Each structure stands twice: as C-alpha cells, then as structure tokens.
C-alpha cells in the first residue's frame, strides 16, 4: 500500500542534516532529533581519542556504519560520563547491525536521568522485550515514553501487534493513515477476526490521493476474504487508471489475471498473510523504513530497518532494503553480503542476483558478474537473466557472445516472443548493427517496431541507421519526426532529425535541428561533426571548422578524429563523405 505521504524526519540526533517538515502530515512531525536530543552538553573527547572520533564521524558521513561504530567504541569506555557519545554509539551500533551492543548502550542511556525518555533507546528496548514475549515490559516502556509525535505514530503499531500476540484484536488506533490501516487489516487477518475489517477497508479507500496500486492491494484483501464483487470493482477501477498511463499496459494485464483468478475461485494467494506477531511488528518497522528510504531519509531508514531485522532475522525484505541503502552509498561489500543472504525460495531472489551482478560490473569485476548470471540462468531458465548477460557482453563490444545470449533468451519462448519481451528484438537488432550485420539488424529492428510502433528510441535508432546509410530516407524522416514529437528535448533524437534532412540534401532545413541538438548536448563529437558538415554545405565555413574542432577535442574515436581532421585541412570534399559512408556500412 502506497505510503509516500508519510515522511519521517531524517535526523538522528546530530547524525545528519534536517529536512523541512510539512505541517499537516503525521510523520512529518516526528523529529527524532528534536524529540530525543539529550539535555546534557556534549564535551569534546579526550585528546588521545580525537583521531578515532574524527575517523568515526568521517566513516558515518560516508555511510560506513560498521567502521563508524568501531572507531567510536573504544572512546565510550574512557568517556562513560558523556551521554551524547553513548547515544551516538548506540545509534551507530544498531545501524551497523550490532544488536547486542546497541541494546546494552540503550539500557545505559535509559539508566541516566538526563536521558530517561530517549525515544530510540526505548524503541530498541521495546523490540527486545517484544522479541522475548515480555509483553508486560513492552507496555511499561511504552507508558514511560514521552507524549510526542514519534511515540504517537509508532506506539499504535507496537500496541496493536502486542495485543495480537495475546490473541486480542485492538486496532482502534490504527486508523489515521494508509499504513496504519494496512496493519489493522493484517492484524484482523492474522487473528481471523473480520468484525472490523470491512469498515477498515472502506476507510482505506477514503484516504486522500489514493493511488491505483492501493486499489489493487485493497482488492487483494477483498478477494482474500471472499468478497469477490468488491475485489473486482476495485481491480477495474485500478485498470481504468493504469490504462491512461504511458507505461500502464503491463499493470492492466497483471490486474486482468487477478480478476480472472477471483472469478474462477483459483486457489491463489492474493494477500500476504502474517504468520506470527513478531513477523507483523517486524513488517511495521520495515514499512516505515521503506517509506523513509523512498523519501531520502536514509539514515533513519537504516535504524528502523535494523530494528525490523533484529525482531525477525528472516525478514528478507529488510535485507534487500539494507542492501539497497548500502549500494546507494557505494558500500558494495556490505551490499553484496546482504544480497547473498536472500534465499532461493524468496520472490526477489532473482532480482537480488541481478543487483549483485550490476554491482560487480560497477566495481569492474565483470567476469564474476557473468559467472553469477550464468549460474542463475542455468538453474532458473530465467529469460531476463539471459538478456542481462547479453547486455553485459554488448556493452563490452563482445557482440557474438551478446547475440548468443539474446538468442538463448528468445528460444525460451519457442517461435513467438510475447509482447512483454518485445525488447529482445530491439537489443538483438542493436547487437547485429554494432557487429556490422545490417541485414539481420534491420530485420530485428523492424520486428521490434511491429510490437512498439511509437517507441521513440526505436524509431530513432532505425531511422538514423537508414539515414546514415542513405536508405529509405523519406521513411526515416517520417519516423524520426514522430520520435521528436514523443521526445522533443532529446538531443540525440533531434540530431537524427537534422541528419536525415542533411542526407536528403535539405541543408538549410537541417541546421535548426542540429543547432538545437548541440545546445542540448554541446560536447557530443558526432553532433558537433554533423553541424559542422551542414554549416559547410551552406557556406558557413568558419563556423563549420569551429564545430569540427569541437568534435575532435571531445572525441575518443581515432578513426573519426582522422576523418574530421581531414575536413579541417581541406574542407568537406565528396571523398570524405564517401569514406564516412563506407566506414558506416562496414
């Protein structure tokens, strides 16, 4: 269920910069920094530890929480009287996944009169008590927490799931946001008590700015509890909305399958059931963390994600979230460790392996990335994995291997490639074109176009290729004009429009498009070169040479530089265009 309107303040007591809060949003008011900042004054650490303290701050600023805590840890032993240092260490320990240290520090922080109402320390201890089924202690900690926005938002989740752990339905406080309503539904379903669920589902549909994906999830719940007509009504409402969106075609198809399942009574789980209360509370902390991450509040997201993971270590949705956070800050070793933990039976196992491979490519370990994907493709016969392997080979200009992988992907479908995998033709066409197999390239690109006749980049690719070869110029012009209509500010597509006009001999008409392309992409050597050629043809020779010089200065293609250098020396002669045409046709 979409909860993007719920934004938790991003700071954890001095660990990061604050973000402005929106006045009418429940989570916006939850400022961990303001709610939990201790009243004592932090003193500088003993000089002997100054280096470790600065190293800890540096590591934390780079989102390396493990080293941030390790550097700070020895300082705590020598500075136990400095409350803020203890609190910083507590937060860093939890963010690093050192739960034992974080919980001990939470007890120390809460044991001091100046910090007896520290929100994070209390939340850590609530998680510990809930995990050990000490529900009396959970309530006592909640009662001792200050009455502020943080406690008022998070407290109802804890209370409701604690009640559920004791087989009691208590969801009255879970009504004022889509996230709370969602957990009210989860709890009702867990307890198999639907006495209030219909009212809750109606309330969920009244939330302001509800999105089509939310209608689908509410529909899933209706279908799950046997209210088929209500489910289908919401599914169709979502379909109508998605049908109006540029990329909603696949969603319409997916929802159509749900409608079919509900109508036929197919025994297919529409709604993810919660198996036990620990899983439920862990999901609540995960859902909050996921919202924070989507809104850019990454440090607070990491804390709440680790609380979720502490409660339920097998919550692999949390593991994936932590991997994504680590990857965002280029903590690749940590991210890879998280991705590797996702088991084979998890729904996101294949996407996790894909992300691992992407990361390995990013750190220049392409061979390991390919090995990871090859093993995955062999074990799962997954088409997307085969396509990914082909993409890696194609980017590395190993076109034969790329084509082999794309062909293996296509063979998984037999004779006809389904609509959602139309791009296999596009990718294979590009690989053929780059490998100078133009006949095969043209065939695949035209086949791709039969699936997506209004795809701007496909129109541009085929149209430009034709223009560069002097083929089908009128059709190429028509196609690229359509691409420009679809992407009016794309410099490459606008360059293509100018270039096909040039190839048609319409030099004056080519110049405005080429000039606009250069404005959008001033340092692209091919676009500079094209504009230079057009200028020369209309007699603007000084400007032509200026553009050719720019092309040379920004190019890394030795052969292209050689051809452009010849034009600088002797002007644009027919033999230069013949040489370029021959080079393009090779």
Descriptive account of the structure:
- The protein is mainly α and 586 residues long.
- It has 4 domains: 1-170 and 288-322, Serine Threonine Protein Phosphatase 5, Tetratricopeptide repeat (Alpha Horseshoe); 178-264, Serine Threonine Protein Phosphatase 5, Tetratricopeptide repeat, CATH 1.25.40; 342-452, Tetratricopeptide repeat domain (Serine Threonine Protein Phosphatase 5, Tetratricopeptide repeat, Alpha Horseshoe); 477-586, Alpha Horseshoe (Serine Threonine Protein Phosphatase 5, Tetratricopeptide repeat), CATH 1.25.40.
- Helix content is 69%, strand content 0%.
- 45% of the residues are buried.
- Mean pLDDT is 85; it is low at 1-42.
Quick one: how many beta strands? 0
CATH class of the largest domain equals Mainly Alpha
Largest sheet: none
Number of domains: 4
Q: Report mean pLDDT, rounded to a whole number.
A: 85
Radius of gyration of CA atoms, rounded to a whole number: 30 Å
CATH topology of the largest domain: Serine Threonine Protein Phosphatase 5, Tetratricopeptide repeat
Q: Which CATH architecture of the largest domain would you pick?
A: Alpha Horseshoe
> What general outline do the C-alpha atoms trace?
globular
CATH superfamily of the largest domain: Tetratricopeptide repeat domain
Determine the structural class based on helices, strands and strand pairing. Answer: mainly alpha
Q: Can you give me a brief rundown of this structure?
A:
The chain has 31 helices and no strands.
List keywords for this structure.
31 helices, 69% helix, Serine Threonine Protein Phosphatase 5, Tetratricopeptide repeat, 4 domains, mainly alpha, globular, 586 residues, disordered N terminus
